[in-house]
Specification:
This protein is of the alpha/beta class and about 450 residues long. It contains 21 helices and 16 strands. The strands form six sheets. A five-stranded parallel β-sheet has the order 11-12-13-10-14, sandwiched between helices. Strands 4-3-5 form a three-stranded mixed β-sheet, with no helix packed on it. Keywords: ATP-binding, Nucleotide-binding.
Length: about 450
């Protein structure tokens, strides 16, 4: 080992701009110690940091200083323990200077410490909608020293998710169903603490495509992870190809792997009927659903599976392949179709979200237009997204080489021309050729 000097490392740490060197061996020992403690996550180990350690006992802070036994004190020859003034031992050494800039006191609350409740506050409001819950949050600020008759702190923690859910257009029946589930869970009525188990949390979202089922599933996942009902903020959306393999025996492994990745969070399967075939026996599908059914029970405490799709199709396929699945999905939420007025509101919201605007269009005229064309928007929100894309393209053609003030300001002509393109590109079922040939 050479006795090569290194100045670049020490110069970086020396706040006094004094070029002090440490030999290569000392630097290597120090660097190894730092790396080992980082990898072993011992940054709070006092024997490593030598930092005074602060903890709370009866609301008073006590300090422990074991710097004399730390790594840096043991290696007294190290530059870390040298000061810039050898005649004043109290002068800060190089490590204490670095430590001051890079570390903070660790405060650990004493497990015995309890906040004394000095006041009580009774909240007595009839809850019929998410608006009522949000009203409680708005009118009741949470305070640590106040005892409430409800878990107000948890409600404040999920305020963002409640606002997001409530702001979704329509789906009033769905919102009330989620509210019922939330109130049940937040009171911990689903738990059997003596047996250390809980009710099933697995949920079905009935409804057609384009009604926001994925967004709702994500909100549910985030909300329950914040409440501690789910231990992790994990959300995975799985398709048939991610659960079913090409060979028998591998499907169970693939399905189990996906389930393991979702433990503590949410596994979401949209159009879950794609996992099964109601017309014939499918060994691959059965293997997948048998594995899933077993996991629904084995991990009832730490997993929430949400499936979505049309009610009839799910009953004829998904629940038909394995009869045990039906009893494990105890929460069933129905998402009603959007009205023409709600479709119009979704369309307007999407325009607003991208910071475009609607030119002065008569509201009554626009609503009648959506009423007339509603039957062509079978995928609801998804179709509104597609319609807006074609409307923007039509708008681009109209304003080309015109005043820039017209940019991103949609008029009724843009909507109608965009709709024409939407209809031309719309997928329609064609009659088989042999059907036409019958009459030739």
């Amino acid at each position: 080992m050479t006795n090569k000097k290194s100045t670049r490392f020490i110069d970086f740490l020396d706040s006094y701009d004094k070029k002090m060197q440490c030999n290569y061996l000392e630097y290597t020992i120090l660097n190894t110690a730092i790396q080992n403690n980082i990898h072993e996550q011992k940054l709070t180990d006092l024997s490593f940091s030598g930092k005074r350690y602060e903890y709370i006992t009866n609301k008073k802070c006590q300090f422990t200083d074991i710097s004399d036994n730390s790594f840096y004190s043991i290696h007294n020859s190290s530059i870390w323990n040298k000061t810039n003034d050898p005649f004043h031992l109290s002068f800060p050494n190089q490590y204490s200077i670095w430590q001051k800039d890079h570390e903070a006191d660790i405060i650990l609350p004493n497990s015995d410490q309890q906040i004394i409740k000095t006041k009580t506050h009774l909240i007595d409001i009839s809850i019929n909608s998410l608006d009522d819950i949000l009203s409680i949050i708005k009118n009741n600020e949470y305070q640590d020293d106040v005892e409430y008759n409800i878990d107000l702190k948890s409600l404040h923690n999920i305020k963002e998710e409640l606002i997001e859910l409530n702001s979704m257009i329509g789906i009033q029946t769905m919102k009330k169903s989620i509210l019922d589930q939330l109130i049940y869970f937040i009171q911990e009525l689903h738990l059997d603490k003596e047996k250390e188990t809980s009710d099933f949390k697995h949920t079905v979202l009935y409804g057609p495509p384009g009604t926001g089922k994925t967004e709702i599933a994500k909100i549910i996942g985030r909300m329950y992870s914040k409440l501690g009902i789910l231990k992790k903020n994990v959300f995975k959306k799985a398709t048939r190809s991610e659960l079913i393999a090409g060979y028998l025996g591998q499907t169970a492994i693939k399905t189990k792997k996906m389930i393991d990745e979702c433990l503590g969070g949410v596994l979401f399967i949209d159009e879950a009927y794609s996992l099964a075939n109601g017309d014939r026996e499918d060994s691959y599908s059965k293997e997948c659903l048998d594995t899933l059914c077993e996991a629904l029970s084995d991990h009832k405490n730490d997993l929430m599976v949400i499936i979505a799709g049309y009610e009839d199709e799910l009953n004829e396929t998904f629940f038909r392949v394995n009869k045990g699945l039906e009893s494990r999905f105890i929460w069933r939420f129905t998402m009603e179709e959007y009205s023409s007025k709600e479709l119009m509101e979704i369309f307007k919201k999407k325009i607003n979200d991208i910071e475009w605007s609607l030119e002065c269009i008569d509201e009554t005229k626009l609503q009648k237009w959506f009423e007339y064309n509603k039957t062509n928007f079978k995928h609801f929100g998804r179709d509104m997204e597609l319609l807006l894309t074609y409307v923007k393209i039509a708008h681009g053609r109209r304003i080309y080489m015109k005043n820039k003030e017209l940019r991103k300001n949609i008029n009724f002509d843009d909507i109608e021309k965009g709709y024409d393109v939407f209809m031309k590109n719309k997928k329609t079922k064609k009659e088989p050729i042999f059907m036409n040939s019958i009459y030739i």
